[in-house]
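Input sequence (187 aa), recorded before submission:
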Amino acid sequence: MASIITATTTSGLTHSADNSGVLQLASGTGNLVTIPSVTGTAMVSGNMPAFRAGKNNATQAISTATFTKVTFDTETFDTNNNFASSTFTPTVAGYYQLNANALFNTITSGQVVIIAIYKNGAAYTRGSGGYLNNTSGDIELIASTLAYANGTTDYFDVYVYQNSGGNRDIYNSETLTSFSGCLVRAA
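Predicted structure, token format:
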């Protein structure tokens, strides 16, 4: 069983107690939430960091044969003010789902293009992209990972790479080039 606090439209808050140590919150319509037994802070939707940023103002030239940090100039949302200067620095320790995408223009068959999510200045995960066979065109790259952040010094960036022999642009559209993440579980 559990101790239950219920919000009703007729009686206001009511409660039923037991000695199980489990606390549940209920609405008058029967929706029930169990508060987990935790050491430290219990996460609720109001304090779970989440962000999404995009590249909207200009394309970005990516030099050949070098990993280059992607710059993001527009924040769609940043619930805990953890995204700045194209870097996500979470201040709540835990496990984060991170996603990135970028669209390169004019890539030809045989060229290598890579997207990577970096943690603390080093590649943490590489993503996938399309493959051009005997042609040229645009290629979208996608990276996704689950990563631990200590809540103090860990930070994340997005880098891309291409080896065309010259500069190639990534597009300036939030739907084509973006970086997002959210806390999945506190540590």
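Checked by second reader. The chain has no helices and 18 strands.
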